[in-house]
DNA sequence: CTTCAATTTGACCATTTGGTCAAATTTCGA
DNA sequence: TCGAAATTTGACCAAATGGTCAAATTGAAG
């Protein structure tokens, strides 16, 4: 058995076919996220997604059997990104620093991934018919964990008592809004959203209000 | 000319025909708001709206020529409701009281009108293609006015300097979320949203954090 | 070079949708 | 009561949509 054969037999697929397939799937997913974010699930059409991906419509269906599958994949990916960031929120940190990092990080995600963020918001708005399972398991678990973090902080006298769940709801709403409701942000600020400075200013004021609101000092750095 | 004739000639239409028409329009608008909130603009069908209003589809088209017109009417009505509430926000009040009232009032609107609220959120999410004009005029004017209120407070030393526009964005996001993303609220709280207690708790904690965050005392009453 | 699975693509289809229309019916004012 | 205007409603239609399919093409492995 030659070394080459050995390498090619490893379980993780690496053939050129597989690599090309993954690239094509990503290309289609990007196009789909864009179209879903513009038109919602029902408003989006496979034809438009195909045009955006610069592929014949039948080819899109070759990679993703149904519109629903395509949509669910977009949702799962952005949810995973958010859960991953929440994971950095731990009890061993200083509450003020942890919150500041979380707020800034979350707003940064809004800035970098506004498109899937809007797709997700649309899904929630309609009662999460496609992603309800993942919400009730993965998200709920993560929220429970963070609630424990706040409980720990409270017991150690590091933070004033606060309802961690309502606080998370507030933080999500306030951070997501810069991605999801860009038109509203434009209108209110009389400026072009999407600009880095807008996100920066939003993150800073939100951090300051929330930290002071919880009786914490705003960390310098 | 008899008195009756006099009365019936007044410009404000009051004939039984007109009253019946208005009742029918409201009935259709309610049904439409419901369906739009569930399915979005494209996902909603005139057939479903007709069923919800318990009318033949052609009859819905008799009162509202197009789906777009029906949708725009739903949007305008809820925006007017919000602008009306913002109008109570004036410089002559105590900042803490004004903010507390605004937050509680806004969350109350979320509780009472969750359905049109979601329709509006959906519209914003997709870039406000139908209501962009009203945003750029009515909403912008009202925001400018409130920015002036904060400026006045600051000059009188009644409040610490704060970016009123970013603050409004935060308040809207945090109050709307209880109506718009009910599924998420359910998941996070492990409870049924829509319950009055949830809105009450959310309003109180949000008020406390924001007021303290701005260096204000939370009013007793 | 051959082979064969993977991929590409145009043509096609059943279903759904917003909207129209004309005929039937109801209702209000005179 | 009568006539005109407003309303109601079933039937219908053109356009759009998600998805299918079979024939053609490609490209990696032996």
Task: Looking at this protein, list some descriptive labels.
homodimer, Arc Repressor Mutant, subunit A, Tetracycline Repressor, domain 2, 2 domains, 11 helices, 75% helix, 0% strand, disordered N terminus, DNA-binding
Structure description:
With 221 residues, the first copy, chain A, is mainly alpha-helical. Chain A has two domains: 65 residues, Homeodomain-like (Arc Repressor Mutant, subunit A); 149 residues, Tetracycline Repressor, domain 2, CATH 1.10.357.10. Helices cover 75% and strands 0% of the residues of chain A. Chain A contains eleven helices and no strands. In chain A, helix 7 packs across helix 9. The N terminus of chain A is likely disordered. At the A-B interface, helix 2, helix 7, helix 8, helix 9 and helix 10 of A face helix 2, helix 7, helix 8, helix 9 and helix 10 of B. The structure holds a DNA duplex (30 and 30 nucleotides).
CATH topology of the largest domain in chain A: the name is Tetracycline Repressor, domain 2
Mean pLDDT of chain A: 92
User: What fraction of the residues of chain A are assigned to beta strands by DSSP?
Assistant: under 5%
Biggest beta sheet summary of chain A: none
Instruction: Name the overall outline of chain A.
Output: globular
- In which range does the helix fraction of chain A lie? over 70%
The CATH architecture of the largest domain in chain A would be: Orthogonal Bundle
